[in-house]
Write a structure and sequence with these properties.
Strand content: 25-35%
CATH topology: Pnp Oxidase, Chain A
Distance between the termini: 46 Å
Helix content: 10-25%
Structural class: alpha+beta
CATH superfamily: Electron Transport, Fmn-binding Protein, Chain A
Number of strands: 9
Number of helices: 3
CATH class: Mainly Beta
């Protein structure tokens, strides 16, 4: 019997090009796709969310308790956040995208740091002033555990929070 040689891993070593792609994605995109485990059925569910980098670089969104995905995150904080959009031309699969596997952490009005985060968020989304202070809204920070970067054809990376310039949480 001959042993089969496993195919080479498509994952590259993280380099400066990968770090720059992540900085560009995190610093320029204003929305993302959030994937959660549905609280009722356990099935995966996705939703588009507004997204900004918080003052410490952690991805942040403002969400309502009335949203289906909020209930899912409260029951199970594990989630994925997909950042990146296809460009106007070419094959959509050649454009960079980053999937963060993360844990959601909520910050409600009245908690330490809320007012500073509110000001920061409103500097990116001034129209959110209409609802940011509603009692059913809170900020959710996405504490990344790992990032899967597809930087375009043949450019796959598996990155730590540190390699992506994100804080590491325990």
């Amino acid at each position: 019997m001959t042993e089969k040689t496993p195919p080479p891993s498509p994952i590259r070593e993280t380099d400066e090009e990968a770090r720059q792609i992540v900085r560009d994605l995190l610093g320029t995109f204003q929305h993302a796709v959030l994937a959660v485990n549905d609280a009722e059925t356990g099935f995966p569910m996705t939703s588009r969310i507004a997204l900004v980098q918080g003052p410490d670089a952690t991805p942040v969104s403002l969400i309502s308790d009335l949203s289906h995905h909020t209930e899912a995150l409260k029951r199970d904080g594990r989630c994925s956040v997909l950042i990146g959009e296809p460009g106007p031309k070419g094959d959509p699969l050649t454009h960079p995208r980053l999937t963060l596997q993360a844990r959601a952490r909520f910050l409600r009005k009245g908690e330490a740091g809320h007012d500073d985060l509110r000001a920061h968020y409103l500097s990116h989304y001034p129209k959110a002033k209409l609802y940011v202070d509603f009692m059913d809204f809170s900020f959710v920070m996405f504490d990344a555990e790992v990032g899967h970067l597809n930087g375009g054809f043949g450019k796959a990376y598996c990155m730590t929070p540190q390699e992506m310039g994100l804080p590491e949480r325990s």
